């Protein structure tokens, strides 16, 4: 078995043992179900299916929750092992540091993907029992799940970067919370504030698309709320995203996985143990 | 062929010379004891041999080539104060490392038995005592039949019975041709067990010889304690004058006579390995 698979397998087993997988899946499922039935209540006369409305609600939930779950899962990937004293022994084996990072990433990515697919999937199944969704709605839902998984993975990658940059586990935890606040909450608020102040004119208005790509959470919003017709009608997000191809946003999301992971690998391989 | 040779090896951290011009050669199948105070450079040397950190200058040749990840398949390593992910069971831990090392799972099972952990293999490592963790660590180091064993303070936390068993395993390995590098700051237990003893102090090699050789060169006095009519007499004589002194004492009506040869501790101290506390603290902080 390859070292990456061995380490990924260990991550998954530990995730199952310490109930991480169960807790994350349950949390996502409960919130998704709640949104599906409470959030979709005022559908009224809107010409949108129940699942389409649920997709939009889920996207708004996922954008806050998934980054938080991902960061909590990943922040101590390396620094935790270092503090526990197991890192030295792990690295004394015939594996490269890239393989250690890749194995950890694959394992945690699998945990998060499982929780997202099962959690959101349960809600979709429940909704479909009430009102049969159209094929378009199912596509939109599949897209949402896919994009949500990518969002989670990007924050796992960021979490790994944090975990190789700091020397102590507690510092990593603080940094992870700061990253979450900054990227998920404050970035949008700041952007919104500037847009309101300048009336959307001038340089900020012009480079807004680029600014949205510079944050995985916003790239995710662009992917989920614009690419699926059924959802876009409900979201009313069209005005902001005009001129941005959903593929560019998708590429930005993938880059937000590859780049932090790449930097983490470079930092980690250069580090003296 | 030498299993490992180190030439003029230096490892400098910011304001600390962890290793300073170390030259050392260990033959294949030899057991070398590495003695030194905390921060003398023992652990740094092992990390360099494992290729986990780069030397500032100097050369390392390991099993005929410079150290790198490919070597680690042939090196068994037991770190100081070994620890494992607490939730995993003993058998799970060993299988995990066996897979990483490309060793068979049967090998893991055999080693569990060999270190006497078969009965506890299904328990989480969290519940293990220090001695059990240390034995699991040794089993881990022995996975995949390593040609070179690096053991960093392996016997800390072991009771005397376990320590003897531990050394029994090491002797078997040496007899099978495994090269063993064992570090310690506990001196007495190294007596008679290692072929050569290298004493490190402040990153430098201050002596490297057999125990007898170290004794001879140190030329430390032999102490003699004689008790006569309830009063005690102590004298220190040079080794070659020992017999003469004993003969003379025996002529007198002494009640008891005790000859105390220089201990390893004395020899160790003689080679300037005494701990400079402030310096040690600084080194530990830097490491």
Count of the separate structural domains of chain A: 1
The Rg value of chain B, from CA coordinates, equals 22 Å
Q: Count up the helices of chain A.
A: 14
Gap between N and C termini of chain B: 33 Å
Low-confidence segments of chain A, ≥5 residues, pLDDT <50?
none
Biggest sheet overview of chain A = none
Question: Could you say which structural class the secondary elements and strand pairing of chain A correspond to?
Answer: mainly alpha
Q: Tally the helices of chain B: what do you get? A: 9
CATH class of the largest domain in chain B: Alpha Beta
Order of helices and strands of chain B: EEEHEEHHHEHEEEHEEHEHH
The biggest sheet of chain B amounts to:
6 strands, mixed
Oligomerization category of the chains in this entry: heterodimer
Strand order of the largest sheet of chain B: 5-6-7-3-8-9
Biggest interface, chains and residues, is: A-B, 23 and 29 residues
Strand content of chain A: under 5%
Secondary-structure content class of chain B: alpha/beta
CATH superfamily of the largest domain in chain B: P-loop containing nucleotide triphosphate hydrolases
Mean pLDDT of chain A: 87
- What is the element string of chain A, with H for helices and E for strands? HHHHHHHHHHHHHH
